[in-house]
């Protein structure tokens, strides 16, 4: 219950208020030869808080209050003071929760970090076209490495991956090469599933199902039926049916490293928040609301601290980051150029032209 409380307490109190309450309760028990059970619990809470949420101490007031407390107890309970002090050696660089949580200082002025392929992870090396040379597995691993470094509901990064997929497909003028690129991305989607990277998997599915790609029926006909069948299985897995029931079941059964499809869980949090007030009519905290939100967050957070054993491929990462992306309008325009709209009265000449394109 303590991790859930530390996740949500800033909805109804400031860090300075919480640290002051904990210190007051600690001091109420006095200073005996051995700490009391309550003091041991407070020590455990502070240890968890400082090790996971040090950014809550971005404002100077809670840091100063905590520092005075640790100095005070250092003569009575040096082992408690020494166990907490290492977490406080340097002030936090920012407060990522200041936009929604109560805080002691003026509104945060921290500029938002740019997204990858826009720069949140700065891996820059000379660019070269590596897509054809790179195996499906290796590319899926590098995309997973990026996602694991971000591990946040980054709409910009999700949109980038989706647009990158559709841009690569419609950029190929020759139908045979276009079908190869489409096949590659369907296979990469399967590799992402094997890596339990559901977030990037969903982005790739969105790119392949973009209107500019979805209309390329002649191109899709050249893809191996087995690849199509496997891809349709992935679409079923990530389907919205039953509130993403198949995906939720797969995530629950996932062991080891994984990256959830954060869009689903982000929407879960919004729905719980909007359907329940923070406080009951009698003024008490609506704790059941925060328990539900906490379960949602804990489901995601269990994957945050299990790292993938993947080494960065800097050339490939730079290739991904620097890839020029077409706008939705440009993608669709390009799609019409490479596979023009057909009419019911298709002439023999146009059918022969289509056959010739497939044989190229």
TrEMBL record:
InterPro entries per UniProt: Ras-like_GEF (IPR008937), Ras-like_Gua-exchang_fac_N (IPR000651), Ras_GEF_dom_sf (IPR023578), RASGEF_cat_dom (IPR001895), RASGEF_cat_dom_sf (IPR036964)
Top-rank taxon: Eukaryota
Protein name, entry field: Ras GEF
One example GO MF annotation: guanyl-nucleotide exchange factor activity
Keywords annotated in UniProt: Guanine-nucleotide releasing factor
Coiled coil regions, renumbered to chain: none
Any Pfam family: RasGEF_N
Ranges for domain N-terminal Ras-GEF: 1-92
GO cellular component, one term: plasma membrane
One biological process term in Gene Ontology: Ras protein signal transduction
Residue span, Ras-GEF domain: 113-341
């Amino acid at each position: 219950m303590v991790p859930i409380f530390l996740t949500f307490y800033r909805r109804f109190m400031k860090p300075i208020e919480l640290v002051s309450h904990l210190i007051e309760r600690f001091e109420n028990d006095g200073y005996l030869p051995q700490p009391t059970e309550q003091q041991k619990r407070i020590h455990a809470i502070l240890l968890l808080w400082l090790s996971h949420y040090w950014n809550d101490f971005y404002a100077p007031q809670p840091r100063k209050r905590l520092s005075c407390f640790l100095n005070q107890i250092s003569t009575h309970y040096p082992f408690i003071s020494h166990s907490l002090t290492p977490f406080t050696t340097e002030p936090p660089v920012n407060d990522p929760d200041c936009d929604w949580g109560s805080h002691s200082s003026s509104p945060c002025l921290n500029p938002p970090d740019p997204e990858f392929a826009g720069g949140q992870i700065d891996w820059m090396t000379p660019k070269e076209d590596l897509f054809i040379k790179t195996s499906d597995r290796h590319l899926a691993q590098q995309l997973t490495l990026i996602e694991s470094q971000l591990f946040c509901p980054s709409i910009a990064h999700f949109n980038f991956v989706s647009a990158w997929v559709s841009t690569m497909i419609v950029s190929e003028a020759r139908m045979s090469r276009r079908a190869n690129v489409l096949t590659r991305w369907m296979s990469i989607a399967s590799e992402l599933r094997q890596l339990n990277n559901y977030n990037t998997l969903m982005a790739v599915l969105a790119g392949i199902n973009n209107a500019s790609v979805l209309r390329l029926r002649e191109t899709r006909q050249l893809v191996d039926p087995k690849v199509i069948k496997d891809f349709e299985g992935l679409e079923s897995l990530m389907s919205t049916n039953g509130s993403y029931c198949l995906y939720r079941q797969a995530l629950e059964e996932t062991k080891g490293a994984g990256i959830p499809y954060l869009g689903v869980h982000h929407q879960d949090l919004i729905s719980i928040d909007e359907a329940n007030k923070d406080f009951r009519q009698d003024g008490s905290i609506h704790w059941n609301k925060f328990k539900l939100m906490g379960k949602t967050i804990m489901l995601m957070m269990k994957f945050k601290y299990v790292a993938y054993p993947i080494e960065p491929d800097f050339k490939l990462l730079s290739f991904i980051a620097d890839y020029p992306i077409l706008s939705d309008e440009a993608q669709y325009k390009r799609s019409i150029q490479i596979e023009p709209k057909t009419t019911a009265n298709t002439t023999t000449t146009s059918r022969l032209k289509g056959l010739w394109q497939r044989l190229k």
